Amino acid sequence: MLYKSFILGMDTFALGLIKAAEMIEDGRVDNFIKERYSSYNDGIGKKIREKSTSLTECADYACNLKKPELPGSGRQEYLEGVLNNIILR
After folding, report:
1. Cα→Cα distances 60→18, 28, 42, 52, 64, Å
2. Would the pLDDT of 22 be above 90?
3. Do residue 44 and residue 21 come from a single domain?
4. 15 and 47 fall within a common domain
5. Is residue 66, in this structure, part of any structural domain at all?
6. Of 6, 19, 37, 81, which has the maximum CB count within 10 A?
7. Crossing angle of helices 2-26/28-36, nearest 10°?
8. Up-side HSE of residue 31: CA atoms within 13 Å toward CB?
């Protein structure tokens, strides 16, 4: 009986690997991440990421902002939908 549990476990790992590959090939999660963190590709965000700025420069940048932008939705429901779509198909 014990061998059946090992077989079931390996089947589960195999299915997980297949679904992970489908998620990577699908590309929606990668595109979401690129869009979500696009502000780190230029301007002060890029300088912060590359560690080529100072705390003084960051403070000056923050002081010169006209009106703070509210963060957008994290769109968790979208990501859950993508995950469910891939897992359940």
Report:
1. 48, 36, 17, 15, 6
2. yes
3. no
4. no
5. yes
6. 19
7. 50
8. 7
Q: Residue 78's pLDDT is what?
A: 93
Average pLDDT over residues 18-35: 94
Residue 60 has a pLDDT of 94
Are residues 74 and 42 part of one domain? yes
Residues of the domain holding 4: 1-27
In a domain, 89, yes or no: no
48-89 pLDDT, tens digit each: 999 999 999 999 998 998 887 777 788 899 999 999 999 998
The predicted model gives 11-31 an average pLDDT of 95
Tokens of 41: 């590709």
CA distance 28 to 51: 29
Residue 86: which of 7, 9, 18, 5 has the closest Cα? 18
